Amino acid sequence: MAATYQLPVGLPPLPPELAALAGVGVAAEPNPNEIVRQAFRIGQMHLLAPFDVSSELTEMPAVYPLPRMPANLLGLVNLHGRILPLFDLATLFETEHMPREKRMLLVIGHGNNAAGIVIDGLPRRMAFLPESQIVPPALPAAAAGALRASYSAGRDAWYEFDYAQLLDQLVS
Predict the structure, then answer these.
(1) Which of 37, 54, 80, 155 would be 48's cystine partner, CB 3.0–4.6 Å?
(2) The whole model's pTM is what?
(3) pLDDT tens track for 37-51
């Protein structure tokens, strides 16, 4: 039977004065009441999605338009051999994409229930406390029915939708 040896892996911890400069500290206890979401933008609209709702983020692939489809449905894309519908929600939210932000494709849903949406820039992680939930300002009628929650962060309102319901409304 061969003996196993433990090899030290990694570096020793930073001295406290260097850790303070690097911003390394003892991790704070997670707040069980925090609502953690993936945050992204479409133009001036700030959107949220639970992490388990989105399945992939990629650069914009080639889009194959379909005739006689609603303006929000840009067409179809091929991701890893799967054909997905690609939606642009900017017109629904009455905004325009940010010209300086790179447009990305965020896949919402999984498997046969997946669809892509065009977002501006990269998503990020945001956490909200329950008391940051707000009554949403007026939204376009097609979007208002799919709204799950809205939160305030600084001067911005962030909106979480039932994306399956929202996208179904766009093609119905």
Answers:
(1) 37
(2) 0.79
(3) 999 999 999 999 999
Buried b (16+ CB within 10 A) or exposed e, 102-133: eebbbbbbeeeebbbbbbbeebeebebeeeee
Q: What are the residues facing 79 on neighbouring strands?
A: 82
Residues in Cβ contact with 133 at an 8 Å cutoff, skipping those fewer than 6 apart: 149, 150, 151, 152
Q: Which residues contact 1 (CB under 8 A, 6 or more apart)?
A: none
**In order of start, what are the domains of the chain with their CATH numbers?**
39-171 (2.40.50.180)
Q: How far is CA 129 from CA 66, 75, 85, in A?
A: 42, 38, 34
Q: Which of 107, 90, 110, 108 is nearest to 99 (CA)?
A: 90
Name the one residue in this structure whose structure tokens are 């194959």: 64
Task: Measure the CA–CA gap between 170 and 73, rounded to whole angstroms.
Answer: 8
> pLDDT band at 28, cuts 50/70/90?
low
∠ CA 104-107-110, rounded to 5°: 170
Query: Which structure tokens are listed for 21?
Result: 């400069």
Residue 5's pLDDT band (cuts 50, 70, 90): very low
Question: How far is Cα 8 from Cα 137, in angstroms, rounded to an integer?
Answer: 56
> Could you tell me which residues come within 8 angstroms of residue 29 by beta carbon, excluding any fewer than 6 positions away?
none
